[in-house]
UniProtKB/TrEMBL annotation:
It comes from the Bacteria. PANTHER family: INSERTION ELEMENT IS1 1 PROTEIN INSB-RELATED, TRANSPOSASE. Coiled coil: none annotated. This is IS1 family transposase. It comes from Nibrella saemangeumensis. SUPFAM superfamilies: Ribonuclease H-like. Pfam families: DDE_Tnp_IS1.
Amino acid sequence: MSDEQKRRIELLLAERISLEGICRVMEIKAHQLYAYMDELYADIPADLACSAAEAADIELRCIDCETDELWSFVLRKTNKQWLWLALDRASRQVVALHIGDRGATGALGLWQALPEPYRQQASFHTDDWDAYKQIIPVHQHRCSQYKQHTNHVERFFCTLRQRASRLVRLSLSFSKKLNRHINSIRFVVTHYNLSLQL
């Protein structure tokens, strides 16, 4: 594939277009697309290109995060995979994400994915889900039964569903393999974080 084709595929992967649709538009075979996707996903930075996590003065400011979880599935609806996400309130960038079950194990996966300054100093606004209470230290946890304290992350989930076809409800576009599911979501989130920096 040419560099121009690769650039266009990167843009198309960050939109809500099925992989078959990308193949038709770009006039390429599925195996070519999958090979390039694997190459592209291998280069996703571990920090999701979040500049908020790299701020030099992070110790000098109050850090607020909103966290929530989003239902998804891989291959069949009985194979539920929950997307756990932490969003920095000030920058609106996604700081960390984890895909797993909806229990304490999933919450622990998100906690471990957070950059160290956030785990040490941030306040976390969550809904009343028990898994958060088991993982987030009490002095950092701001639990609320109302959506107003997690409205930014809820709004981001709407954006994510608009950009990642495999997260759309009642869609025929779904992941068949867990690693592709995780990498495609990480790619869209990284693309979103980079767009906020511009």
